[in-house]
Amino acid sequence: MDKDIPSPDNVKDNIKQKYLMEMPEDFYQFWEFCKEQNKSQPENAMYSFLGWKLVGPYDILAGKHKGISRNKNGRRPNYLLHYRYYYDPPEFMTVIRGDDKTQFHIGYFRDVPSEMPVFVAVNQAADSCNIVPRGENIFGAVKNIIDETLKAKSTDQEKKKKMEHFQSKLVNFAQTKGICLALQSPSMKQRNKKVVCKSFHGAGIVVPVDQNEVGYRPVPETPADLKKMLKKVVDSKTEKERDKNMDPIQELVTLVQFANDECDYGEGLELGIDLFSYGGDVLHPIVEHLLPLAYQLLGRFEYKEIIESHLRHRSHKVNNELEL
């Protein structure tokens, strides 16, 4: 990512070069829709009444990457980190940012980097690691979140009117294009059947499991017990205490090595995602050991690159790689 490679002229190729993944059709359709609402600044089409901005790969459509060879950190923009919040696993890619206080953001979630997203979800990084699916595509997610905001008593009346106006246009646009607006689409329900475990972030993980049930075995601790173990490690006051509290975690890592030898790659992914989602610098060396290997074994090489980048620069701040 540190090489000066010219950006492809074709915007879809440009995004794939920078983000390692292709965006779904609804991503581009939503940009066209926002252009209809705000021709000069489509990225701000929802800002006046929701405080949201289109970011991430939308910055490429807005041309914000042009002419930036060094950002405020004095390095080339790393798009794998652009609006990658503290709890965003590689599977999650931010496309809408909300306020910096809660660090509310909306993004596409995909199980496999070479495949299209399975849904669009929300995380509030200042509050928790929870990733909450809100619809199959960006139109559905935005509509469903606006529906909830309209019901909230605290929503300002003037903003409500603007939201309702925007909402009716969004629904109309989606219907003419045959875009599904359901909170739970049939394809999301199908994906739920493939989820091998919910994981700490709640969005679940999916790995291939063959007819002999090779591919996944669960981490042999309940989520509650694993969280207690991790809390002890993170709260340790001395190195000696930490080493002692780390022993049960190291035992789990050893079990993952056995699982990997027997092609149950899902266990390493589960444990790695759980430790990543729990958070804490002290756990990063284990996450660095577990997740890149899990992604490599699963053939999800793009995610390996993303997690390695993220762990090197992981921060509780909102990261805009194009800021000067």
Automatic annotation (TrEMBL):
Q: Does the keyword Nucleus apply?
A: yes
Write out the GO biological process terms: DNA damage response
Show the GO cellular component annotation of the record.
chromosome; nucleus
Would the keyword Nucleus be found if you checked this record's keyword annotation? yes
Which GO molecular function entries does the Swiss-Prot or TrEMBL record give?
Answer: histone binding; poly-ADP-D-ribose binding
**In which compartments does the protein localize?**
Chromosome; Nucleus
Name the Pfam families for this protein.
HPF1
Record InterPro entries = HPF1
Q: Which UniProt keywords apply?
A: Chromosome, Nucleus
Q: Which family does it belong to?
A: Belongs to the HPF1 family.
Q: What is this protein called?
A: UPF0609 protein C4orf27
